[in-house]
Specification:
The structure holds 2 protein chains of 2 kinds. Chain A is of the alpha/beta class. Chain A contains 12 helices and 15 strands. In chain B, strand 1 and strand 2 form a beta hairpin. The chains are: A alpha/beta, B mainly alpha.
Chain lengths: 411, 315
């Protein structure tokens, strides 16, 4: 069944594409559509299709229809390269991917090499969620553009907020044991030490990725440490199970997180009854009060049973359209040149910039807490009745970090 | 410190008892059919999802009864119409059959309930904290889980040791042909044991579902550790499975709470080695390797006591 669906997913756009090749801009969406990451990948796919519909309603990109080509990579780097090659063979010139920095690293390498060998047939890679800083630093590529703030930028913004909260005294770090968790942990330590030397790090834990079923032992340890604040980059079940165990043990701390808004997160926070005690950092949340974002959110929710988790995906697609207009072409090289240094009005209001030096997008960031709503917060999450409330806005200049990227541009 | 020890003990015993609920069925099936049932944890997952669905319709308590019966019936069906046919082709075929079955069950669960976690809640009657110890609340539901596990352990032990059915099952474990010659339907005994074993896994699923997470990959998370319990405890030994479950629960919980590392014990490594693999090993904490502790135990047991802690037979 899965094979059949995969074959159909690849074959159908091919047939369709052949007939109207000149009329469409095809974007290969490479993310997990089966296996453990499928629940996240499916939400992403529907989000992209929704944005494509929005663009098409306004005449598409440079008058051409936008089409999202779904490609299942099972969160596996090797599988991703096979899918990327398939997509390219089917005439796709733009790839987008977000889940997993290991996949992102492989794709970025692949696209760079492919473009070296195939001048005139270049492919661009739009990264909407893989946050490993290395992709826009040591391993940056001209063909890679990232719309999500990388994990260092997020920690910079998060700690800029935390340093203004006097209640933060004893911080416990708990993260997943892989490159991303490692970078969250080391950046949190370094930045907190620099910005608030009085804060004590009372615990620093790494646990296996997506393997723990019962976080009770970890919570007992957090409790014993006397922490008042926990910082975690955990996502997926590693986040929801951690919160569940914390609620069971009656652990009362404030949580500073990256991905509390992910699927299952809001439900876990509500079940744990942590009213406005869980904070998340992101480039946008529902309830920020921007009229155009509110309209988008309402339309999305009317169609699907989830809310917008990827304002960055909206930024990516809209900015792609704007860059194509600026270049008056959908030729990847010209679009890439137009994107460099481009300023853009982001989804939640305000200006963002695609930095030329490293192709990292900088934008206003927000810190929001999840809990009971007032009249100012019309949207709830996952039918919990609770919603996001803005705690702070971090301006663009407060998120700027230097890069070590030495960009190699094509001649 | 005392606080951490007490809480860790409680948590460890609780996790251990949950493991035991699943391992008890597996170890009996293992010793009877001589095959590792790779799909055993899938029945735990089925129990959780059936429990979720039935508790939506009729409430938690009927679910606690009906879901295991349903899963047990499916388990018995699998033995009668699947395993028994495959059995003719030897153990490898059986192994592959249960291996495939685990994937089939996972796919079916994904098709019906989707890939995201479902909202399976603790029944309101049990949603309060039973007692507070060192300012940590201990939820009543966890005490309930503990009591159910102990009750099932006691019931199983009595049935196996004191009743006629238990006598026949025990005999069939070691001398299936003799039991058959005495006029007992060995095939039916196998089916019954398989059904009960999977039903027990389903009980674990129903009670663990609300406390942990109910989603399509929950079988994969607990599956491997079950085999550790069975091997460490000794094949077919119920008390062995009990001891091994508790042991693994406690080892894992206590390891998490320990921060010690080689660098903590012997001081930091000389800077010459800072960028080598040695530095990684030197600074890794016991807490970080806690999840692999049970597998270390497995390897040690296989080397030094292959029959398991309380097992009698080497396999």
């Amino acid at each position: 069944m899965r094979k059949l669906m995969m074959a159909a997913a690849i074959a159908l756009p091919m047939f369709g594409g052949a007939a109207i090749a000149q009329e469409t801009v095809k974007i290969g969406y490479i993310d997990p559509l089966s296996g453990g990451g499928a629940s996240i990948g499916e939400v992403g796919l529907k989000t992209f299709q929704f944005i494509a519909d929005e663009l098409n309603a306004k005449g598409g990109i440079q008058g051409k229809k936008v089409e999202i080509v779904p490609l299942d990579n099972k969160t596996n780097p090797q599988e991703s390269l096979i899918q990327a090659q398939k997509a390219i063979d089917a005439g796709v010139r733009y790839l987008t991917q977000g889940n997993g920095s290991s996949v992102a690293g492989a794709l970025s390498d692949f696209v760079t090499k492919y473009n070296e060998r195939n001048p005139g047939k270049e492919v661009l890679y739009f990264n909407y969620a893989a946050v490993d800083p290395v992709l826009t630093n040591a391993k940056c590529s001209f063909w890679h553009f990232r719309w999500d703030a990388n994990s260092d930028i997020k920690m910079e913004a998060l700690t800029n907020y935390m340093k203004t909260v006097p209640a933060v005294k004893n911080v416990y770090l708990i993260n997943q044991d892989y490159s991303f968790g490692e970078s969250v942990r080391s950046q949190a330590k370094a930045m907190l030490a620099a910005k608030r030397p009085d804060i004590k790090i009372v615990g620093d834990e790494l646990h296996p990725l997506l393997k723990i079923t019962d976080f009770a032992p970890y919570v007992a340890k957090i409790k014993a440490s006397g922490a008042d604040t926990v910082v975690t980059g955990n996502w997926g079940q590693d986040f929801s199970l951690l919160l569940k165990a914390a609620a069971d043990a009656g652990l009362k701390v404030n949580w500073y997180t990256y991905y509390a808004g992910g699927t299952g997160g809001p439900t876990a926070i509500k079940q744990a009854n942590l009213n406005h005690q869980v904070f998340a950092i992101g480039e946008g949340f529902p309830n920020l009060g921007n009229p155009s974002a509110d309209a988008f959110e309402r339309a999305l929710r009317a169609k699907y049973d989830f809310s917008l988790f990827y304002p960055r995906a909206v930024n990516e697609m809209r900015m792609f359209a704007a860059a194509a207009d600026k270049a008056k072409s959908i030729e990847p090289v010209k679009v890439a040149a137009a994107l460099e240094g481009m300023e853009f009005d982001v989804y939640d209001g305000g200006k963002g910039t695609m930095r030329k030096d490293d192709h990292q997008f900088f934008q206003p960031m927000y810190i929001a807490s999840f809990g009971e709503r007032t009249d100012k917060e019309p949207f709830d999450e996952e039918k919990t009745g609770w919603g996001w409330k803005t705690a702070a806005k971090i301006e663009v200049d407060q998120t700027m970090l230097p890069t070590t990227c030495k960009m190699e541009r094509p001649n | 410190m005392l606080e951490l020890i007490v809480i860790s003990t409680l948590n460890g015993v609780l996790f251990g008892m949950l493991l035991f609920l699943m391992a008890s069925g597996l170890t009996v099936i293992f010793s009877m059919l001589g095959v590792l049932n790779f799909a055993h944890a899938s029945f735990y997952m089925l129990g959780a999802f059936f429990g979720f669905q039935i508790s939506r319709w009729f409430g938690f308590w009927p679910a606690l009864l009906i879901a295991p019966l349903l899963a047990g019936a499916i388990g018995a069906g699998v033995e009668r119409f699947g395993l028994r046919r495959v059995h003719r082709n030897g153990h490898v075929a059986e192994l592959l059959f249960t291996f495939g079955l685990a994937f089939v069950i996972e796919e079916i669960v994904q098709i019906i309930w989707g890939k995201s976690p479902v909202d399976f809640r603790i029944p309101p009657v049990l949603d309060f904290s039973a007692f507070t110890i060192f300012s940590t609340n201990y939820p009543a539901y966890k005490m309930f889980m503990l009591l159910v596990s102990i009750a099932i352990f006691a019931a199983l032990l009595i049935v196996l040791k004191k009743t006629r059915i238990g006598l026949i099952v025990q005999a069939a474990l070691t001398h299936p042909h003799m039991v058959g010659h005495l006029g007992h339907n060995v095939g039916r005994i196998f089916m019954l044991v398989f059904g009960v074993g999977t039903a027990l896994a389903a009980v674990a699923g129903v009670i663990a579902g609300p406390a942990l997470v109910t989603q399509a990959n929950m079988a994969g998370l607990l599956g491997p550790i079950l085999f550790v319990v069975v091997v460490v405890g000794g094949l077919g030994s119920l008390p062995g499975a009990f001891v091994a479950s508790l042991l693994i629960g406690l080892v894992q919980t206590f390891a998490v709470s320990m921060n010690g590392s080689l660098s903590g014990a012997f001081g930091p490594l000389s800077p010459d080695y800072a960028s080598t693999w040695l530095a990684d090993i030197w600074s890794v904490t016991i807490a970080q390797i806690a999840p692999i502790m049970p597998y270390v135990l497995l390897v040690l047991i296989l080397i030094f006591r292959p029959m398991g802690l309380l097992g009698t037979r080497e396999t």
